[in-house]
């Protein structure tokens, strides 16, 4: 058994409304054994001084794409699955150094299963990285957000998209995800901003089609995450049992009431919107995104304000891969800018994200929880930008960074 004692200046436990501390945390192997003003120090325990830091649960990003490079997507799609998995591993390790100890990856554009392989390699201890929960592919209608065949000339007919247009084929796609190791089902029920040939303001699944998808997922015990934009798309996703709405760009107050009533989570990817706005103003947005974003950007910001004012469960998710992983930590600041309180923003990446993932062993500092713990100088409730200064990272009881160390610590 290994034992570590963390001497903490102050603590955000993932659920409280304020910081507590000073406090000590005893970690035995990969779990928190006790937490209090002072804890037992077993013989040989390693003591780590975090007395000048705020200590929080490891952050959870519930929307990333480790194997998608938006700036280069059409070409990258032609790379081997192994190449994508290895690059994804490097990004995952870099991202963990910012404090993200658990990631939900919501899809690769690959006929094989690079994110499943990456998750399995990390779980088996072959490589070190954050805990991964994956939806391998983005299931989509033809001409929907996940239909990427238009990247290439029709003669190539490359197997780059997981698309289906009748309920039997949709069920087969869901079952295939289960067979080959997806934890979640990811689908899109509206177009997107950066995909060519579709429109986020239009719904792309008919009701009987999304019903085929979600009922098959439910039968297999798989939760469903839905990329959605249009207000009607948000409502369709909620009506058919989506556990999380990704982006929910144009959600309206009726949709928010429905989400609050049934307990759907919303993952609003606000930093990405900020960056898209910046690119729109700078004239660097890709042409297929310009007309859509110009039409919708004020509506998106208004929806984010409605969301922030609602009681809906908001989970931290960035869409990193669509923009640089080094910017993912800025979602905390974007959320506060949109109207969330700093403590609610911290919960989105800890206890609320763990709730979305159905993982009651994560997202909280309490006895019996997995020892995913990060620390930062300064107080993130006084100034949320402290979250961008994480310099101590423990996952599963193993210290990967710090305190004060630059980069990933081990190996
Ligand atoms: Zn995404």
What is the compact description of this entry?
The chain has 411 residues and is of the alpha/beta class. 32% of the residues lie in helices and 21% in strands. The longest helix has 23 residues, at 287-309.
Report on the structure:
- 32% of the residues lie in helices and 21% in strands.
- Strand 16 and strand 17 form a beta hairpin.
- The mean pLDDT is 95.
- The protein is built from 12 helices and 17 strands.
- By secondary structure, the protein is an alpha/beta fold.
- It binds zinc ion.
Please describe the structure with a list of short key phrases separated by commas or semicolons:
Urease, subunit C, domain 1, TIM Barrel, binds zinc ion, alpha/beta, 7-stranded parallel β-sheet, 411 residues, 7-stranded mixed β-sheet, single chain, 2 domains, 17 strands, globular
- What level of helicity do the residues show? 25-40%
| Sheet with the most strands: spatial strand order | 3-2-1-4-15-16-17
State the assembly state of the protein chains.
single chain
Name of the level-1 CATH class of the largest domain: Alpha Beta
What's the arrangement of secondary structure elements?
Blueprint (H helix, E strand, L loop, with lengths): L2 E9 L11 E6 L2 E6 L9 E12 L1 E6 L8 H4 L4 H16 L3 E6 L8 H10 L7 E4 L3 E3 L21 E2 L3 H13 L5 E4 L18 H13 L4 E5 L2 H9 L4 E4 L5 H10 L2 E3 L2 H13 L4 H23 L3 E2 L16 H8 L3 H7 L2 H7 L15 E5 L14 E4 L2 E4 L10
Parallel strand pairs: 1-4, 5-6, 6-7, 8-9, 8-10, 10-11, 11-12, 12-13, 13-14
Antiparallel strand pairs: 1-2, 2-3, 4-15, 15-16, 16-17
Bound molecules: zinc ion.
Zinc ion (ZN) binds next to loops.
């Amino acid at each position: 058994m290994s034992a570590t004692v963390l001497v903490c200046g102050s603590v955000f436990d993932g659920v409280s409304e304020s910081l507590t501390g000073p406090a000590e945390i005893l970690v035995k192997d990969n779990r928190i054994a006790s937490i209090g003003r002072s804890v037992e120090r077993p013989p040989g325990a390693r003591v780590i001084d975090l007395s000048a830091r705020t200590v929080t649960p490891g952050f959870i990003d519930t929307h990333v794409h480790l194997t998608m490079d938006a700036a280069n997507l059409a070409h990258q799609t032609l790379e081997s699955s192994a190449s994508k998995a290895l690059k994804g591993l490097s990004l995952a390790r870099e991202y963990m150094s910012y404090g993200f100890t658990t990631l939900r990856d919501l899809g690769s554009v690959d006929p094989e299963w690079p994110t499943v392989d990456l998750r399995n390699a990390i779980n088996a201890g072959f490589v070190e990285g954050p805990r991964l929960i994956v939806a391998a592919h983005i299931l989509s209608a033809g001409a929907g957000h996940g239909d990427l065949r238009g990247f290439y000339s029709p003669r190539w007919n490359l197997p780059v998209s997981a698309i289906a247009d009748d309920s039997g084929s949709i069920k087969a796609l869901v079952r295939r995800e289960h067979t080959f190791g997806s934890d979640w089902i990811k689908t899109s029920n509206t177009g997107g901003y950066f995909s060519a040939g579709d429109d986020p303001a239009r719904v792309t699944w008919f009701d009987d089609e999304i019903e085929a998808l979600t009922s098959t997922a439910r039968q297999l015990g798989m939760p469903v995450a839905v990329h959605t934009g249009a207000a009607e798309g948000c409502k369709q996703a909620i009506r058919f049992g989506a556990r999380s709405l990704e982006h929910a760009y144009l959600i309206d107050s009726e949709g928010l009431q429905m989400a609050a009533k049934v307990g759907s989570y919303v993952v609003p990817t606000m930093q990405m919107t900020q960056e898209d706005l910046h690119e729109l103003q700078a004239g660097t947005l890709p042409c297929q995104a310009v007309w859509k974003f110009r039409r919708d950007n004020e509506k998106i910001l208004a929806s984010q304000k409605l969301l922030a004012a609602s009681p809906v469960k908001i989970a931290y998710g960035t869409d990193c891969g669509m923009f640089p992983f080094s910017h993912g930590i800025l979602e905390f600041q974007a959320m506060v800018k949109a109207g969330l309180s700093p403590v609610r923003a911290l919960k989105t990446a800890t206890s609320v994200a763990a709730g979305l993932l159905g993982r009651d062993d994560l997202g909280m500092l309490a006895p019996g929880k997995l020892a995913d713990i990060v620390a930062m100088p300064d107080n993130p409730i006084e100034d949320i930008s402290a979250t961008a200064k994480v310099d101590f990272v423990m996952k599963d009881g193993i210290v990967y960074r710090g305190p004060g160390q630059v980069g990933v610590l081990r190996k």
